[in-house]
Amino acid sequence: MNPKDQVAIVTGGSSGLGEATARALAARGAKVAILDIGIDKANQVAAEIGAIAVKCDVSSAENAENAIAEVSQKLGEARILVNCAGIVAGMKTVGKDGPHPLDLYRKVIEVNLIGTFNMIRLFADRAGKLDALEGGERGVIINTASVAAYDGQIGQAAYSSSKGGIVGMTLPVARDLARSGIRVMTIAPGIFKTPMMAGMPQDVQDSLGTAVPFPPRLGEPAEYAALALHIMENQMLNGETIRLDGAIRLAPR
């Protein structure tokens, strides 16, 4: 699908991988809607790229439904969805202070995994009713997992669970939506220059970068965005997770 003139929703689009994707889509002529809980930054990015910003908690059924309806009213029905919204929580299953708080585990699952599926189901319900484009295509969904889905480190039980769930649902959801002409793909990034990473000392960033076999550096958000654009345009990419990680395999810690 050529993103030009198409409505594209990017969750978590106010920073990091989502922001890079929103900017890349706008540069290609898409009508971009940034959905984010941090509406102030979302408004700032939207103003810079000619997009709209909508406050949205992706884990809330009502919130997400209202946000998608607002996008439809302002821009038209979306054919592209990129799910980048997510949170990170690092804690051992049993630590010095006792067992992992269940509420924290549940929160990570609700935002990262349930939030992704929530957006998928609502987007697909509407996109599946649109007129088919070339090749019968009606929509494209791109989710964000992580190499932690495969190589979860110590303290990443919640995060790895949430990202592993995204990987696990990619194929069955793609099969579910095939009859509607909606493709579903997932990107599993390695160590990227996100706002969380940028807050670390430079020597720490450099050390993490050298752990990547090749290229021995942190990934650039623009590289994630470039892959997302390619997925949109390559109709044979469907039902798969692509590791975007420079061949890194995470050690236990």
UniProtKB/TrEMBL annotation:
List, in alphabetical order, the Gene Ontology terms for molecular function in this entry: oxidoreductase activity
- For this entry, the protein name equals 3-hydroxyacyl-CoA dehydrogenase
User: Family, per the entry?
Assistant: Belongs to the short-chain dehydrogenases/reductases (SDR) family.
Alphabetically list the UniProt keywords: Oxidoreductase
| Superkingdom of the organism of origin | Bacteria
- TM region positions: none
Entry-linked PANTHER family: 17-BETA-HYDROXYSTEROID DEHYDROGENASE 14-RELATED, SHORT-CHAIN DEHYDROGENASE/REDUCTASE
